Amino acid sequence: MFINPAADTKRDRIPPNQKQTTGFPVLHYGEVPEYTDLSTEWSFRLFGLVEEEVTLAYEQMMALPKGGTTNDIHCVTGWSKLDNEWEGIPVEEVLKLVKVKPEAKYVMLHAEHGWTVNIPLVDFMTNGNLFATKHNGEDLTPEHGWPLRFVIPHLYFWKSAKWVRGIEFMEKDKQGFWEKNGYNMYGDPWKEQRFAWD
């Protein structure tokens, strides 16, 4: 019997209790950052459990090798957007800049306005994760995280920090902003890990 390999593939890519959208909803806490001069107002810091801390200016960060990926994203509020094309700096290119100590098991991403998000190091290093500068061929808008947004598609989209400014390498897991406010520490959309009690 012939089975069309394209049949139901999109439906099968949407986790439980999610609905597909073709839009790109804007959700965040706090104000959208504004910059007048990224060369003086923006830097990216790698710190914590590393042999030597590194801070990059905006021009240095943007000079790192670029890559692209296509993935699906799933928001904890219930929408999923399929076939997103991202361009940016792959995680592995950023990790080449530091020697991470063996006791590091987690990262905390630090973003504008003191916003943070925790991720296990092994998940952070998953192939295809990147620090995005473009979405579907266009520069990110400020509302979607310009000038730099982390993208980790296998976790709920709140883990994909907007306006990211640094990576802290840690031995033990700690709550980030939304985790302190009741969200799940891990956030697997296929297991519906939305809240701390899930």
TrEMBL record:
Region described as Disordered: 1-21
CDD domains from the UniProt entry: arch_bact_SO_family_Moco
Pfam family, one: Oxidored_molyb
Domain Oxidoreductase molybdopterin-binding: 30-178
Protein's name according to its UniProt entry: Sulfite oxidase-like oxidoreductase
Native species: Brevibacillus porteri
